[in-house]
Amino acid sequence: MSDVAYNQEPPLLSDTGEQDVSPESPAADQFVPPVPRISLQAFCETPDVASMLETASLDRRLARAHITVQMGGVEAAVAFYADAPTPNLIIIESVLDAYALGADLGRLAEVCDAGTKVVVIGHVNDVLLYRELLRNGVSEYLVAPLEPLAAINCIGGLYHEADSEPLGRVVAFIGAKGGVGSSTIAHNTAWSIAEGYLSDVVIADLDLPFGTAALDFNQDPPQGLAEAVLSPDRLDEVLLDRLLAKCSNHVSLFAAPSTLDQVYDIDEKAYEPVLDVVRKNVPYTVLDVPHVWTGWAKFVLMAADEIVITAVPDLANLRNAKNLIDLLKQGRPNDRMPHVIINQMGMPKRPEIGIKEFSEAIGLEPAATIQFDPQLFGNAANNGQMIQEMTPNTKPGESFDSLATLVTGREQPSIAKKSVLGPIFEKLKRSKKD
To answer: Which of 68, 138, 352, 427 yields a CA-CA distance of 20 to 30 A from 58?
Structure first.
């Protein structure tokens, strides 16, 4: 049991009253990293906890873990492992008091293999019990009732060491329809993340035959994403560094070939090994997902940490955006809702659906609305520059900065401005105090 056997003598705990010892349930917008490939077996005593773990097992962050949930608690676990090897992680639910729970876990320790981690879900909210269990080798103690995301967060925390490099966050951008400007918004938001927070960002152009990221950043790299996707076994940190095109101090590009030399009928999980390597090396990855509906496109969206849907205010975009939102809501119940951007507002002579009506139909308020400005965006595209790079302090640029704050979960960076009147104001404040 976590390399340390549980003491055979049950812990004698004083009655300390109700104290909250369970970790806080993470909010839906809190970043919870994906769990690696592990085997996990849970033994429950109540239907509610079993149902919660079954729900958690369907979450995208546990997609690689092999999970089984059964009833019986500690008794069933001890009987099962008497003749079977233990998995990477055992989750035990117990409704017993502190004294009886300690005795039961002592019996479980006798049949546990070295290196197996144990998480206990109990119904006693006592800080002394929590400390005693952790001191004797239990990896974590959670108090029921418990939300699925709290359980996922706990499992993920066991396999991401505190002193290791944190996994990067993946943000996927997709248009509700072709030509709505999703790529432009993805590239400009990536630039805002990099320049605003001075954090490294990789932009992965997933539109292999028709991608525009290289054009938008005035790059012409000889290699890029196709080499990584078609040779996943060779991809490591060294190859990653060679395939990335440096666009600025903090922005690197995984460019698409943007040629029709071959057909890219790729596997559903073709991008998974690429994202694994990038996650481990870069704080933020922006995925420019083309407007297609394939197995790999759905997989990428379901696996992303944040999703941004770009739409223009017409009927086809409204329908497609609503379909995407409904699908993502069903497939990602423990994640934050996707962010919707209404782009190209106010295009001359084009009938538009009002923002209020659009929002009510899709069930979400837009994260930003961006006005139609063909000259600003056209000049930036033709120059191979980002909006903030070419013309700082524009309304669209402010929208990209706000979106960068939203998808990273960080506070908006602020620069302290010094005023020539500052010393005078300070003297006035001091004189008033005197």
So the answer is: 138
